[in-house]
Amino acid sequence: MSNKNIGGDFSLLSILPFVGSKEDFFPESIGDNKCSFFETGTDAICALILAHWEHNNKINYCIWFPIHYCGQTILRIKQVLYNYGCALKFSYYEQHADLKDYNFDKGDIIIWVHFNCFSPLQTFTTEHLKNKGVFILEDFVLAPFDINELTGNAAVNSLRKITPLSLSMVYSKYSFPDYKFSPAYSDERRIAAWQKSVFEMDSKAALEVTFLERFHNAERILNKRLTIQIASKEDEVLLKIIDWSKILETRKRNYSLLLAKLHSLNLDVLPGEYQFLMLSLSERDNVRKALFVENVFSPIHWADAQSKLSKTQLSIPIDQRYSEPEMLHLAELLKKIIKINAT
Questions:
Q1: Could you report the per-residue pLDDT of 8-42, keeping only the tens digit for each?
Q2: Exposure of 100 in the CB half-sphere (CA atoms within 13 A)
Q3: Which class does domain 20-172 fall in?
Q4: Do the bridges between strand 33-38 and strand 29-30 make them parallel or antiparallel, or are there none, so unpaired?
Q5: Taking phi first (over 0 means left), then psi (-120 to 50 degrees means alpha), and beta for anything else, what does residue 85 get?
Q6: Which of 60, 73, 74, 145 is in the most buried spot, having the most CB atoms within 10 Å?
Q7: Hey, what's the torsion of the CAs at 60, 66, 70, 73, to 10 degrees?
Q8: Does the pLDDT at position 246 exceed 60?
Q9: Boundaries of CATH 3.90.1150.10 in the chain?
């Protein structure tokens, strides 16, 4: 077992080797919905909302978010839309409730989230929303390989959480204005990914400080930005030559292996298959701190939402960077830490 870190941002080594398989997962179109590329999922969502708003004569309809959606993302969407002169109403719904109980108006947008796995809308729900004139925007950011399952009006995914690419895809019937590309964010993130690759081959502490600061600076650039950005041509090229089949295969293997090794603990595991192994733990914060000491960096998704999930959910990395022995080591580490914190 190596001493490398588990989790954190992706280095360039996470997308090697190159063998193209893009069309198997990210085709040029899904039905009548054509693919467009943006830099981040937030860029893609904002572009879709603006296109829908303009198509409907700029009527001030409502955008409906799931109650567990990331508050920071909602704030950034609101700021970017306002910068383009679009000040829409925001409201919230419970994704697992009967949506017939909500007062949706014609032209409203509902964002349906596939949280760590494909979460299909039931046929009668889709028909009910479409009959009311509600625009269904499916968010596949945490289930990017499942975007082919689109049944709503449009879909968005993002590759930032599974690779070093700063690229998001939109599948929609809408056409988009000539949005620009600024290299500030993606270049900073690409340099950080390269520096992390060097660190992974030569673990010097100074290198770690350098690439972490680069990643942090990239996020600062992104959080200050109020314009919609398209993806870089470099990332579009990488999209076509990355071995997506191998990435998905390795993720599924690691997910199944880690889940099987933790079975004896009878943990509350959220649905998933290849993104993260998401655990619901009452002692979540203590477990996360103990994992951090062991160089395992476990993110918390949408922790700022006011729900039980936000206070207990912990995402364990199982991605293509890790071998079977590393997953076995992680399983033993998790069992030890969880048992200690349960006593």
A1: 999 988 988 787 777 889 999 999 999 999 999 99
A2: 6
A3: alpha beta
A4: antiparallel
A5: left
A6: 145
A7: -20
A8: yes
A9: 244-342
How many Cα atoms occupy the beta-carbon half-sphere of 290 within 13 Å?
A: 17
64: pLDDT strictly greater than 50: yes
- Please state the length of the chain: 343
* Cβ 36 vs Cβ 169: under 8 Å: yes
In the numeric block, which tokens belong to residue 212? 């972490």
Average pLDDT for residues 49-73, to the nearest whole number? 91
pLDDT of residue 215: 93
Give backbone dihedrals phi and psi of 128, rounded to 5 degrees, phi first.
-60, -45
pTM for this predicted structure? 0.93
Cis peptide leading into 17, omega within 30 of 0? yes
CA pseudo-torsion sign 302, 303, 305, 309: positive
> Which residue is listed with tokens 């395992």?
296
What is the rounded distance in angstroms from the CA atom of residue 233 to the CA atom of residue 228? 16
When comparing pLDDT for 187 and 208, which is higher?
Answer: 187
Domain 244-342 bears CATH identifier 1.20.1050.10: no
Q: Are β-strands 154-158 and 33-38 bridged in parallel, bridged antiparallel, or unpaired?
A: unpaired
> What's the rounded Cα separation, in Å, for the pair 57 and 163?
38
How far is CA 55 from each of CA 33, 52, 65, 175, 176, rounded to the nearest angstrom?
16, 5, 21, 10, 11
pLDDT of residue 343: 67
Buried b (16+ CB within 10 A) or exposed e, 318-341: bbbbbeeeebebbbebbeebbeeb
Domain with CATH 3.40.640.10 in the chain: 20-172
